[in-house]
Specification:
Shape: globular
Order of helices and strands: HHHHH
Distance between the termini: 30 Å
Strand content: under 5%
Radius of gyration: 15 Å
Structural class: mainly alpha
Number of strands: 0
Number of helices: 5
Length: 146
């Protein structure tokens, strides 16, 4: 009966939110490359779907790390990859996001589309852990402009 907007979201929850917003599509395969995603778990289908669609490759070849807290960088990267990695047309958005960062294009894309305006002081704060309210806000803003 509680949403817990300030609650920390882990990787399993974020991918499940994204999978749910996509209509809970069935994965094409039941082959699970991740030893840490148990068969029948709440996130199994979401993780398999995200892996098949190239939204995530896991934290290494055999681990998804479902219980790891999800950073802002990871959330926008999941969304960016879900949308097919479109090329952003802006080249700068936040002083704490560098071209060498794995999430660089994802953050530019998210800022360009109004999915994020950053946080305090005009920074993106990529390493900050996302709470549930932030994640559903990202998803909502993304859904308004697919």
């Amino acid at each position: 009966t509680h949403f817990d907007p300030g609650g920390v979201c882990n990787r399993a929850q974020v991918v499940t939110f994204l999978w749910s917003s996509a209509g809970k599509p069935e994965p094409d395969s039941s082959v699970n490359p991740f030893v840490d995603v148990p068969r029948g778990s709440f996130c199994e289908k979401a993780v398999l779907w995200a892996y098949e669609k190239g939204i995530t490759t896991g934290t290494d070849a055999t681990h998804f790390s479902p219980a790891a807290p999800c950073s802002r960088a990871h959330v926008v990267t999941f969304l960016y990859q879900y949308r097919g990695r479109p090329e952003p047309t802006v080249t700068a958005a936040f002083p704490d996001v560098r071209p060498t960062d794995f999430y660089y294009k994802a953050v530019l894309w998210a800022a360009q589309r109004g999915i994020t305006a950053g946080m305090d002081g005009g920074n993106f704060r990529p390493a900050s852990i996302c709470n549930r309210a932030q994640i559903v806000t990202f998803l909502y803003k993304d859904a308004k402009n697919p």
